[in-house]
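Input record, target 12 of the design panel.
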């Protein structure tokens, strides 16, 4: 009997010891939990932009050959019916801008928005967003998520962000983009927002585009802007004021292998860009497990987006090339002024210059 009792006591002591060990183990602090949430919020964003469209397309194609084929058929019918919606202001959901995940996303870097001048709700605006970087983190966080207080800083202004029109042809991904306030970077879509959607609209355009992403690297600030004048012509045709903005720190989020002009790899990148609309960059960031590991997540570097003074633009239905050139020069001068006045405040030195190609 004593042997049985001793055996039972020994067996009971095993889980008790395990429980004691578990309770004695250090629990994650609030700081650790916040760091994990921030990392997960960035992970879901990167995966959404890189994989959501392609995975959704492949899944719908797969369902065609199964008993669930009506799902693919119904969604195809929906896309045909809804084909023009991205060109007509999209279908934004305010609740998505207030999503808690975006606050963790903002704090991961962190991202900050700085206002220098008021924007009147009685006008429409084209905001030039510079630089492009790899994934346009600053533009997305400030103009789409609302986590940095755009609505409070610019009351009465509805921000939109443009992206490649091809993204709106991908199933499910198109719904995700429109719900956040993204629209195609086409004359028709931008023109609709500037002329048929009332006033108080601010359309942010990452002017450098895919070509600029090829020159994205830490310590170098090069913009593709000298021959990009279409946004100025659009502003003149609709009487929308031009607003320069610059995201300091955008180019520090990834490390990119930059191929020299004239090299065969550079020519392949440029040819691919002309055919597909985006450039295949060779880059890396941090991994999921640690900062020292390599992966596809951006490094946690601060980004400060400064929104500058609006350039007043008259409404001219058919502006001449000379008028477009004049307002383009005024815009570039305003952007250079914005950069030089703020560069030392947000991580750059007095000798750093903005190179415009």
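The sequence produced for target 12 reads:
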């Amino acid at each position: 009997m004593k042997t049985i009792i001793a055996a039972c006591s020994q067996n009971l002591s095993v889980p008790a010891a395990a429980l004691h060990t578990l309770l004695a183990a250090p629990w994650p602090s609030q700081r650790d939990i916040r760091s994990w949430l921030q990392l997960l919020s960035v992970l879901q964003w990167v995966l959404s932009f890189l994989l959501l469209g392609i995975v959704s397309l492949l899944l719908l194609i797969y369902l065609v050959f199964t008993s669930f084929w009506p799902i693919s058929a119904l969604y195809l019918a929906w896309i045909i019916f809804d084909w023009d919606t991205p060109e007509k202001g999209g279908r934004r959901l305010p609740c998505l801008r207030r999503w808690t995940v975006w606050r963790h996303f903002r704090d991961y870097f962190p991202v900050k928005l700085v206002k220098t001048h008021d924007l009147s709700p009685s006008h429409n605006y084209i905001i030039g967003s510079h630089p492009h970087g790899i994934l346009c983190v600053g533009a997305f966080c400030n103009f789409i998520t609302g986590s940095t207080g755009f609505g409070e800083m610019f009351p009465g202004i509805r921000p939109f962000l443009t992206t490649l029109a091809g993204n709106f042809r991908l199933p499910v991904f198109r719904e995700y983009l429109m719900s956040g306030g993204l629209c195609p970077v086409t004359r028709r879509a931008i023109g609709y927002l500037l002329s048929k959607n009332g006033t108080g609209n601010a359309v942010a355009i990452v002017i450098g585009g895919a070509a600029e992403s090829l020159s994205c690297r830490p310590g170098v600030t090069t913009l593709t802007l000298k021959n990009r004048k279409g946004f100025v012509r659009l502003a003149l045709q609709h009487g929308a004021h031009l607003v320069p903005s610059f995201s300091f720190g955008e180019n520090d989020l990834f490390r990119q292998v930059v191929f020299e002009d004239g090299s065969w790899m550079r020519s392949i990148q440029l040819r691919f860009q002309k055919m597909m609309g985006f450039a295949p960059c060779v880059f890396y960031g941090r991994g999921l497990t640690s900062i020292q590991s390599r992966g596809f997540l951006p490094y946690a570097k601060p980004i400060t987006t400064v929104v500058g003074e609006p350039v007043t633009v008259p409404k001219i239905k058919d502006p001449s090339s000379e008028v477009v050139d004049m307002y383009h020069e005024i815009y570039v001068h305003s952007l250079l002024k914005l950069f030089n006045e703020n560069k030392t405040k947000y991580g750059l030195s007095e000798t750093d210059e903005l190179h415009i190609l």
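The first helix runs from residue 2 to 24.
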